Known about the structure:
Residues 83-339 form the AB hydrolase-1 domain. By secondary structure, the protein is α/β, with parallel strands linked by helices.
Amino acid sequence: MVPFSLLPIASFLTFLSRPAQTFPAPHCTESLASVTASATNFDLSSGSLPENATVPVSGTFKVKLRFCEPTVVVPGRVDTLQVVVHGLTYGHQYMDPDFEPDTYSWVRWASAHGYATLNMDRLGYGESDHPDPATVVQPPFDAAFMAQIIRLGRAGRVAGAPGPFKKIVYVGHSFGSRVGNEVISTFPDLVDAAILTGYGHKIGNPGDVAFQPAKEVDPVRFGDLPSGYVTSVDAESRAAGFYGAQGTFDPAMLAYDEAQKDTASVGELAFLTGTKDGIVGRPAPDFKGDVFAVSGDSDLFVCTEPNCTNLASEEQFYPAARSFEFAVIPDAGHCLHLHFTAPILYKTTLDWLNRHGY
Length: 358
Ligand SMILES: *[C@@H]1O[C@H](CO)[C@@H](O)[C@H](O)[C@H]1NC(C)=O
Ligand SMILES: *[C@@H]1O[C@H](CO)[C@@H](O)[C@H](O)[C@H]1NC(C)=O
């Protein structure tokens, strides 16, 4: 038998990603929910990010929700809902891709381990409403809007939910984690646990990912959007910014990702590029739940130190948390769920959930 270390990395990772089991597709219910929220946003009209938020914003917008039932009953988990939230230039497909879902779909994996999930297209994404991308779709309003979705989820008032849930596990990726950070900072009692993937407070080098108005990149899909909705220009740019080295991901996954890609708002992007000292996000001094920070070892956005050891310092932002842990997933870039090592991410997270009673 050939030791793994003698195999080329790509064939080892391909071997690793072959699903150990297949997961049945869960029963899911989609809906367009009407959600009202208000917040104080930042005035971006000068083209830079001011120190404080000053502009009250409120509104009612439609959001596409997708509630999926567990495919097995695990007694300790029937009262737990995972709220799963994608990042910039993705929609709900990030957490539930059609491409080889046994390997890559967080939603399928969660269903197969007894969790109900509430997946979505965030405000400004996919089939949800697209309000003004500069004045409305910014972290303060994003968080207030998400808080309302979480309240609906906890109360069991989303289409498909069998009833109320006692525990909420927020699972974010990238800007979805940034929004989760804002939620537990502003509304510290809403969720029990926050799993923040692809996110740290100190931004690294965002690589070569180039954004342009989405309507110029793909007039067929995005021609109706204002130019403040942007997206990555092509697959090469996406690979450079979001993926690890060649061989750590399936080129067919990158092609699927490129075909499915969504947009991002300039109001959200301003919080990546314009922040003081490169700090992205806020402390959550009053959050008393559990926090798990997880990133790929070659995440250009998150890793400011080799092997992403800087994730350890995320603990300082959650001083009242019941627990803080971090994990680094090998051979994965920013979109760690879409790499060959995604099953390691899922196993690592399941172990964490088990250890913390979720
Ligand atoms: C921002 O808010 C802080 C805290 O209220 C205040 O000390 C500071 O002066 C404000 N900055 C500006 C530019 O208004
Ligand atoms: C990064 O992690 C790998 C695998 O765990 C280890 O072999 C390597 O020495 C680490 N590198 C650094 C710079 O810590």
